[in-house]
Amino acid sequence: MVPHPREELFSVLVVDDHPLLREAIAARLRSMGAGTVHEAASVAEARARAQANGPCDLAILDLGLPDGSGLDLVTELRSMGWNRLVVLASSDDPYAVRSAFQAGAQAYLLKSASPAVVTDGVKRVLDGGVYADPTVAPLLATGTRVPGTDNTPRELSAREVEVLQLVADGQSNKEIGEALSLSALTVKSHLSRIGRKLGTGDRAQMVALAMRAGVIR
Fold first, then answer.
1. Partners of 10 in the beta sheet?
2. What are phi and psi of 131, to 5 degrees?
3. Cα three-residue angle 46-94-167, rounded to 5 degrees
4. Looking at the predicted structure, is the pLDDT value of residue 165 above 70?
């Protein structure tokens, strides 16, 4: 296995109501260099951990928690300054995958994923990227097609969808960059690519096209 390129230790919160799975994930993260691993079995426990310890470098969350929605927890942690969120789920439903990214997740992994896939996904997110389990990636692509101004379907990447959602939320390029840990220039490049795909450089029109396609809320 290729060693993780980051030398410093990272902190992580693992949220899952199945003790064995939670412990297995925690052990794998420690083997990848996690220095501090907090564990939670519910939304309430995760919320308490988050408030007590502040944002960790990474959070891995189950969507099916006993006392609430994992998607709501993703949104809540995102608003609290958690910038690297990985969803761990049983479902490969395209709507669930898309909803996770729209809520603010950077990765979507299936519970049935191999240890190598989990490692790849975590590495990608720690390095500032986004990741979809290879099993669901084709499904995600089919759910992110937006008709451009000429009504021809254009496929947007998960990151482009994320940028567009923040544009729809009224955030500036600088604010989007801060939220996604990107430079303002990179955000501008993403918007330029989105504009070329959709046939318009107008932010409001890009958002309107994506909303009509159901890609963003």
1. 34
2. -150, 140
3. 70
4. yes
The whole-angstrom separation of Cα 5 and Cα 123 is 9
**What dihedral angle (degrees, nearest 10) is formed by the CA atoms of 120, 135, 103, 27?**
-40
**pTM metric for this prediction:** 0.64
Distance from chain centroid for Cα 84: 7
pLDDT at 81 over 50: yes
Quick one: DSSP state of residue 150? T
Q: Which DSSP symbol is given to 157?
A: P
Residue predicted with more confidence, 127 or 14: 14
H or E segment to which residue 69 belongs: strand 68-69
3-state SS, residue 181: coil
Lowest-confidence range among 95-104, 123-132, 175-184? Answer: 95-104
Q: What is residue 42's DSSP assignment?
A: S
Q: Do the strands 85-89 and 107-110 form a parallel or antiparallel pair, or are they unpaired?
A: parallel
Token couple for 41: 């079995």
Q: Which two tokens stand for residue 42?
A: 């519910």
Own/partner long-range contacts of 185-190 (Cβ < 8 Å, ≥24 apart): 187/163, 190/159, 190/160, 190/163
Closest CA to 131 of 148, 116, 150: 116
CA of residue 111 relative to chain centroid, distance: 16
CA 123, chain centre distance (Å): 13
